[in-house]
Write a structure and sequence with these properties.
By secondary structure, the protein is mainly alpha-helical. Helix content is about 75%, strand content about 0%. It is globular, with a radius of gyration of 25 Å.
Length: about 210
């Protein structure tokens, strides 16, 4: 009896599975949306690192003597407070960029850079100024800012991205020889970075 019930259950399951409609394949994701999502994910990860640094700074100040902990600096506010304000302005500038308001975003990133050229966000601000020009198809201006990131902040987190995007500006302007040379530089200078992997794929894609 038990064997018969099992057989009926298998038949019923088989019938049910054949009557269910097959799921439709998901539509291909828009490349621009995927790129923005990737950029936002990367941004959030780096902001988490920045927030951790801010917490350490605040803890260090709280452990300091009361006469120095609350004393405003010459620029106004404590260093931790200024860094937090820069981070908020940076987030707002990213939002402007993602909404396609490139001129406003460019001005916001420039203000962030001018406020403190030694901050953790200085190289990011320069890079995103380049991105506003790149998105507006002003590749000459974009390349100048990417180059500044590489030259002035070569050991910072945005340098590999800037060097890779510099190569893409050469592609856009038709200088494929220089583009290839720059892609090879990305791989040699930053071999373990995500842009280095992208550079390898781009080298295979370029036709001479």
């Amino acid at each position: 009896m038990r064997r018969a019930l099992v057989g009926l259950a298998l038949v019923a399951a088989s019938c049910g599975s054949t009557s269910d409609p097959k799921p439709l394949p998901a539509p291909p994701a828009d490349a621009r949306i995927v790129e923005l999502q990737t950029s936002m994910t990367e941004l959030l990860e780096r902001l988490d690192v920045l927030n951790a640094r801010l917490e350490r700074l605040e803890q260090a100040q709280e452990s300091d003597d009361s006469g120095r902990a609350g004393r405003p600096t010459a620029a106004g506010g404590t260093p931790a407070l200024r860094s937090a304000e820069l981070a908020d302005r940076y987030r707002s500038a990213i939002v402007l960029f993602n909404r396609g308001r490139f001129a406003e975003a460019r001005a916001a990133f420039q203000q962030i850079f001018d406020t403190d050229r030694t901050s953790d966000l200085a190289d990011n601000a320069l890079f995103w100024i380049g991105e506003t020009h790149y998105s507006a198809q002003d590749y000459g201006a974009a390349s100048r800012y990417y180059r500044r990131v590489v030259d002035e902040f070569g050991d910072q987190n945005k340098a590999p991205d800037a060097l890779f995007k510099l190569a893409l500006t050469f592609e856009k302007t038709g200088d494929l020889i220089l583009a290839r040379k720059t892609l090879e530089e990305v791989i040699s200078r930053y071999p373990y970075s995500t842009p280095a992997r992208a550079a390898k794929s781009e080298l295979n894609r370029i036709k001479y």
